[in-house]
From TrEMBL:
It holds the Pfam family Resolvase. InterPro entries: DNA_bind_recomb_sf (IPR038109), DNA_bind_recombinase_dom (IPR011109), Resolv_N (IPR006119), Resolvase-like_N_sf (IPR036162), SSR_resolvase (IPR050639). Residues 161-309 form the Recombinase domain. Keywords: Coiled coil. The keyword Cytoplasm does not apply. Residues 402-470 form a coiled coil. It comes from the Bacteria. This is Serine recombinase. GO terms for molecular function: DNA binding; DNA strand exchange activity.
């Protein structure tokens, strides 16, 4: 069908344009559309624009408005620059064509002066496939560009996080190359100003960073996202109130430790994160950090444990400082904290649900505190050495376990290979169906065991990485030792963290005698 059979002088047109990157100029699309309208003596009565919006975005306000107005018959036809401006996935093209055909509204491409909404099916399919190919090419190119910026220690784009403002670099390459002029100009400037002009600069927003530091501090003290948000001053998040998501975005962002990360988010669900193994991270010297990378790692580990329900919301922030640590010597059951003061009498206690043995919270807390104070005779250097030796020992044990499991895994894989061969031979020779069925049951059991062992190895490898990268870090250990040395001065949430760090479990038996089993041997030479 030719355009002259569809478009007549005086008809009303709508223009739809979209671009996703800075290099794709909307002016080109608009100029082409207005030239097309003039040529066919038509009038564009509305412009529907989606600027800096990817075709992958499900929410495109310009396109949504276009479809709404098309349903109300506000115009006779639609002008687009090319099919790729509307969509890039063939399925999306089919949906748009069907919708506009039902409404009786044609779509024309100004760049080729062809009809988008009709035509040969094979030709349309080829065009749609090419549009998808172009999208994949742009996506790959964008990913490569961002990765290059990351590896160079440069900002990868987007709005700077809360507490910072980004000033783009002034040097340019390509058609607007000014590198020589910039080089000459910056020769006589201080090195800091010179680098800012050539690489860009992050300006610190002091009053915001004070709040960001408080967010990390409260999170380490055991507060949850919502609790932290409620503690923040009103309208102090860029003129808006805080909420739990704003707090979360600070906690999960390594930017605050001077590190830029890409590929953090799952493309199919922007609210969820990819596995840490998929992230690409690099230190950026332009960022002035407010915490160390190891401190951020510690916060992120707490976040992951809470997300996976491995930690209850008030795991750290509880008045029962020995929760999950205190066990009955007689029953080997955990003693649970119970507050009996609401009855007008009684007190807070730990109680064994097995035998009913009770111990006063004040008595047992004081006894454990006294035990720790007694062990403070060790120097900080001795404590750091003791902790590091324990971590190395734990790593060695886990690596030994990995070797044992890996050996068993290889044996099971060989068994699976032999079993598959046997099943295949029996199939080809029309063997006994009952035996084949039994072999398949054995195969399923073997596959489940292989999957379980693979998961065990993966979990052990992650644990070793955490121990080596975070727990063995000397600065973090020193921080904990500083807390250990001034235990009586600490808030309860930090005291609980120290107990959880050093104590494996405490056995208690009537009339209240304690037997403490430490993760790290602190009793030596005491």
């Amino acid at each position: 069908m030719g355009l002259n059979n569809v478009i007549a002088p005086g008809m009303k047109a709508a223009f739809y344009g979209r671009h996703s990157t800075d290099k794709q100029n909307m002016d080109t699309q608009l100029r082409s559309a207005y030239d097309f309208a003039n040529h066919y003596q038509c009038k564009i009565i509305g412009e529907y624009l989606d600027e800096a919006v990817s075709s992958r975005r499900k929410e495109r306000k310009g396109l949504e408005a276009l479809i709404r107005d098309a349903a109300e018959q506000k115009f006779d036809f639609i002008i687009i620059y090319s099919a790729s401006r509307l969509a890039r996935i063939p399925k999306e093209h089919d949906t748009l064509r069907t919708t506009m055909n039902i409404l009786g509204i044609h779509i024309v491409e100004s760049s080729t002066e062809t009809l988008y909404s009709y035509g040969d099916i094979v030709y349309s399919s080829i065009k749609d496939a090419l549009a998808k190919y172009e999208m994949d090419k742009i996506r790959a190119s964008t990913r490569d560009s961002i990765k290059t910026l990351l590896n160079m220690g440069l900002w990868t784009g987007g709005r700077a996080p809360f507490g910072y403002k980004y000033h783009p670099k002034l040097s340019r390459t390509g058609e607007k190359d000014n590198s020589e002029a910039v080089k000459e100009f910056t020769k006589h400037l201080p090195i800091e100003d010179s680098m800012a002009i050539q690489r860009g600069k992050f300006e610190i927003i002091d009053h915001e960073l004070i709040l960001a530091k408080r967010v990390f501090s409260l999170y380490k003290d055991g507060y949850g996202f919502q609790q932290i948000a409620e503690k923040m001053p009103a309208k102090s998040y860029r003129g808006k109130n805080w909420d739990k998501n704003k707090v979360k975005q600070i906690i999960i962002n390594p930017f605050y430790s001077g590190v830029v990360a890409i590929r953090k988010r799952n493309p199919s669900s922007r609210s969820s994160l990819n596995d840490r193994e998929d992230w690409l991270m690099n230190k950026n010297s332009n960022i002035q950090p407010i915490i160390s990378f190891n401190e951020w790692e510690e916060c992120f580990r707490i976040y992951e444990q809470r997300k996976e329900k491995r930690l209850p919301p008030n795991y750290y922030k509880t008045s029962f400082l020995l929760a999950n640590l205190l066990f009955c010597k007689t029953c080997d059951q955990e003693l649970k904290g119970k507050d009996q003061r609401s009855k007008g009498y009684g007190k807070r206690i730990y109680i064994c649900n097995g035998c009913g043995f009770k111990v006063s919270i004040d008595d047992v807390h004081q006894e454990v505190m006294n035990l720790f104070l007694k062990m403070q005779t060790k120097t900080a250097e001795q404590l750091v050495k003791t902790v590091q030796e324990k971590i190395l020992k734990d790593c060695y044990e886990m690596e030994s376990n990995i070797a044992v499991i890996s050996n068993a895994l290889e044996q099971e894989k060989q068994k699976l290979f032999n079993l598959n061969e046997k099943i295949e031979k029996m199939f080809s020779s029309n063997g006994d169906e009952t035996i084949i069925k039994l072999l398949n049951i054995g195969k399923e059991t073997l596959l489940a065991s292989i999957q379980d062992k693979t998961s065990q190895i993966s979990q052990l490898e992650k644990s070793i990485k955490v121990l080596k990268d975070i727990d063995a870090n000397e600065e973090l250990i020193k921080d904990k030792m500083m807390d250990f040395k001034r235990l009586v001065e600490l808030p309860k949430s930090k005291i609980r963290r120290i107990y959880l760090y050093f104590i494996e479990r405490i056995y208690v038996e009537p009339p209240g005698r304690l037997e403490c089993k430490f993760r790290i041997n602190l009793e030596e030479d005491v």
